[in-house]
Amino acid sequence: MCRNQKIIKWNKNVKFRCPLFTAIRVMAMLAVSASVSSAITVVDDSGESLSFSQPVKRIISLAPHITELLYAAGAEKQILGTVSYSDYPPAAKQLPVIGSYVKADYERVLAAQPEVVMYWKSGNPENMVNGIRKLNLKLFNSEPDNFEDVAASLIELGKLLGTEKIANLRAQQYLQRLSALRKKYSNKNNKKVRVFYQVWNQPLMTINQQHLINDVIDFCGGVNVFAALDNIAPTVDIESVMQKNPDVIVAGMAKGREQWLHEWQKWQTIDAVKNKALYSIDASLIVRQTPRILDGTEKMCELLQQYRDEIVKVQ
Fold it and tell me: Where are the alpha helices (DSSP H) in the chain?
């Protein structure tokens, strides 16, 4: 039985977020993938099963994290198109863009003649997904929601796309690095740090316990002050943040958003502001469910350890 087990409901499906269970599942997948049969059956992150007579060679991605996963799985030559902000790896910027993750060009999608369209259930609007479904195209939901699920996704994509060798290797490398990070930071998390993670400034947005970023914070010995909220990406107000009084504020930033941290200076009653524990992290490293989540995790752990070293020891 897992401690602090989290449950997420996807329509009629219930997904149990148990790292130990998922890790065992990933190792089983690696073993099974060694024996390849002529028929290919994969299960997406909604629990939907898809079958093919041979590996898929033509695929469209409807989210930046999906594009990144496809590259990591060795399927870059099979991507027919993607959406805006699919900017990693750099080669992805050269792919045809068929719209954004909230609005796809159905004509361009159909004209590309994909065998599968990969979508993001929590991010792509339901009406957009249904619009593509009406084109009689097969859909595959990609939504890894914990660390081990990223490896599981790579393995399943390798099976779907016929790139098992590179996908399985990268899944193993990812799991080895995850294990190394756990060992590195397991003895440094004695002091729990209360964290407010800022997704956006106007409106002020954060994440709850269902988001992978919450797992990152927990991994690094932090406590997400808004973990208990119902919405996966809730809007909050300044008064709520003041009431929670976080030790640290971490803003997920891209270039041009540096003013976010400066805006907190007017709220000196918040401990994070008073102690100058205002940090930023590259949003693309922490918000996308890809192998780079470990880059974001290492950075988050470094920031929280910096707080312990600079603030906690002084108090």
Answer: 19-32, 64-72, 106-111, 126-133, 147-161, 164-185, 212-219, 238-244, 259-262, 271-274, 283-286, 293-307
